Structures are given as structure tokens and as C-alpha cells.
Amino acid sequence: MVKLSQRMKAVAAMVTPGHVLCDVGTDHxxxxxxxxxxxxxPRAIAMDINPGPLERAKEHIGLYELGEYIETRLSDGVAxxxxxxxxxxxxxxxxxxxxxxxxxxxEAICRKAKELILQPQSDIWKVRRFLRENKYxxxxxxxxxxxxxxxxxxxxVPVEKDEMWDRIREDHIMPCDIYGPLLLxxxxxxxxxxxxxxxxxxxSILQGLETQEPSEAILKRMEEVKQQLAYxxxxxxxxxxxxxxxx
Length: 247
Fold this sequence. Notes:
By secondary structure, this protein is α/β, with parallel strands linked by helices. It has helices at about 5-15, 30-35, 50-65, 95-105, 105-110, 125-135, 170-180, 180-185, 190-210, 215-245, and strands spanning about 20-25, 45-50, 70-75, 90-95, 115-120, 135-145, 150-160. The protein has two domains: about 5-160, Vaccinia Virus protein VP39 (Rossmann fold); about 160-245, Helix Hairpins. The longest helix is centred in the C-terminal third of the chain and has 30 residues, at about 215-245.
């Protein structure tokens, strides 16, 4: 059996059993291999924009004798995927801007899928904002801590309207984009630890800035850190309020 990292285990756990999977940016091909080995999905398409990683995926698929179940394709995003060909699309392990690019360029394909599992490595608030503004509903979120890093991930579905945001206060929207509405609602324990560590970091940065000779650049950075601290502290309030409001 192939061994997955904690991050990739959490990503794989979000794939609905029985769905045909497309793994975008598959790298080693471990997620589709693991799901096929556990007989959780019937077949998969493993895609990558680079020939090197795709060759590695082919080697691993051959090693585990799963060529009958997993097809590999060289593809820029979902360009090599046909509409309705996959029910679950995984886009994991890449920057947030690239995730948004894939969703934008492959909109027709992505919106035909039943679900997308996203695990952006950066600009996560931008990804959540994009989803909110482009009719994708976050239906599940998770966060894991592995090798000194925090990894948030989400399952989203295409919708005509996500009514959850109608029930969230305007001043809470940005903190939800930053930290995740469902992570906050569910009081995710890894998110709680992340909030505490982040607060300490921001406070330390601010303290260091306050000891420096004032300049336009220093004052601007201080305002940025104060805003980040405010969002962090808002998240603590939202943790309880969302549960009490039944959101």
C-alpha cells in the first residue's frame, strides 16, 4: 500500500467514495493510487503540466499494477479533461494564484464536476474570496499540521447561490476568507493552535517595529500588522458566534 503524508491523507479523505477522480498536478500520483488501493473510487485520471512528474506517476502506477484503473495525461490545469469526465477534481499542493487560474481557465470543466478538493499552499484568502464571488460553496474544510507547516484544505461544490454568506456579518467576511468559515464554525483544533501561534508572531513583529526609527515604510508596515492582528482577534469572536447563530 502506498503511504500518504498527513496532508495528502486529509485531501484524499475529502474525495467522495465511488466518484471518478481527476488529480490535477498529480506529481507522484499517490492520491489516486491510495484511493484505488482502498477500493474507494472506481478509476482516476492523473494529470500534470510537466512531463517529469507525470513520468514518476506512471512509474508508481505501474509499480502497484494499477494501469487499468489510473490513466495519466499531460495537461495544463484541466485542459485535457472533458466535461463530466470526472466527478471529483483534486487541485492540491500549488499556490493559490495558480489554483484560481486553473478554476478560471477551466471553468466549464470544473463547474461540471460534482466536487472540487482544493489545497492551496499560499494566498488562501484569495482562493476563498474567489470561491465566494464565483458561485462555489465550501461544504467541508480541514487543517493539518505537518513538518512545521499548517495546511488548510476545502471541498467545494458549484452552486447558483451560497446563502451562508447572507447570514455572516459584513465585518466577518474577511476573517472567514482568511481562516475558513467552516474551520471557524467547527472550532477546528488545528486552526485554534494556528491562531494562537499567529497572534504571537504578529505581536512580536509589531513590538519590533515599534522600537525602530519611524519612517513611512515602518509606519505602513505597522498598520498592516495591526490589521492582521485585528483579523486574527476577530476570528476568536467568530468561533463562538457562528456556532450560536447556527451558520
